[in-house]
Amino acid sequence: MHNYLDFEKPIAELEGKIEELRHLSGSGEVNIAEEVTKLQGKVDRLLVQTYAKLTPWQKAQVARHSDRPHALDYIRALITEFTPLAGDRAFAEDLAIVGGMGRFKGRSVVVIGTEKGSDTESRVKHNFGMARPEGYRKAQRLMKLADRFGLPVITFVDTTGAYPGIDAEARGQAEAIARSIEVSLKLNVPIISVIIGEGGSGGAIALASANKVLMLEHSIYSVISPEGCASILWRDGDQAQEAATALKITAQDLATLGVIDGVVEEPVGGAHREPEAAMERVADEISSALDELEALEAGALIKARRDKFLDMGKKGLG
Fold first, then answer.
1. How far is residue 264's CA from residue 278's CA, in Å, rounded to a whole number?
2. Residue 6: per-residue pLDDT
3. Which of 31, 33, 44, 73 has the CA that lies 20 to 30 A from 147?
4. pLDDT on residue 318
5. From CA 157, how far away is CA 65, in angstroms rounded?
């Protein structure tokens, strides 16, 4: 059974009826195949209609869906011969950021991702995808390793933001994020980032200062969460829906503004309904981007990356 979002209640009701009918059919007393087919057609149409007109707040809910594929899911599905690498060689291992070396469609790559976890135990283990400074320093170490061996870097971003705890601040959270951005911008190899769920604040851009930044169709990317923005501007978290619209957090808005380079279409009903299909589409987009970027020399890669961020925000403003 799916975990349904609030706006999916009509879909949930129809799919509930389908399950009931299938259960009756299994008893051997009734043949209701025609009715099931009819209801399934209604579900498919309703999914298309619903997901074609999602509000920014509804997209935020989809981006946070617990069944949406996470960074480790992408690594397992797309990276063969994956060898995880741990620790920042300075303080500790941070499981909110995962990474290592492997092969993507035959290419040797370094892959890094923020991992939220998919159930209570794994969410606690990965600190809900909120990295401490040692996580960003591990990311820097892996990016420098990629640079040394001439390997492209692929990052999967899914975080509400960096961990805001006192211990993280005491160990230089802001410096670690800034240094990660600096290292990203200086890489002599291609770096491709995919926002697979939430791209929250500096915690996201630390891994998304890339030559190509792609977003899944129903992912979000913003300087602050809608709830955080609402609590600051209106001192009322209930204004999150209004904040989500004002922040321009959707892939479609950010593509218009030139903040990202491409939108990866999701299966109807979101990536959580058909994770394998969603991950395959992401793989195709990464492969195309790598083909384009690997044709460029190091100097051209660095210049294109820096110019991209210097020009950011100009597109679509006038």
1. 9
2. 85
3. 73
4. 47
5. 15
Taking the C-alpha atoms of residue 80 and residue 102, their distance in angstroms, rounded to an integer, is 6
The secondary structure element, H or E, covering residue 87 is none
Q: What is the three-class DSSP state of 10? A: helix
Residues 32 and 155 in one domain: no
Instruction: List, for the chain, all residue ranges whose pLDDT scores fall below the cut of 50.
Output: 29, 316, 318
Give 199's strand partners.
Answer: 159, 221
CA 10 to chain centre: 27
Predicted local distance difference test score (pLDDT) of residue 18: 76
Same domain, 306 and 166: yes
pLDDT computed for residue 236 by the predictor: 85
Please tell me the distance from the alpha carbon of residue 64 to that of residue 287, in angstroms, as a whole number. 26
CA torsion, points 275, 278, 284, 289, in degrees to nearest 10? -110
117 & 14 share domain: no
Q: Which domain holds residue 116?
A: 60-310
SS3 263: strand
CB 198 within 8 A of CB 263: no
Q: What pTM was computed for the model?
A: 0.91
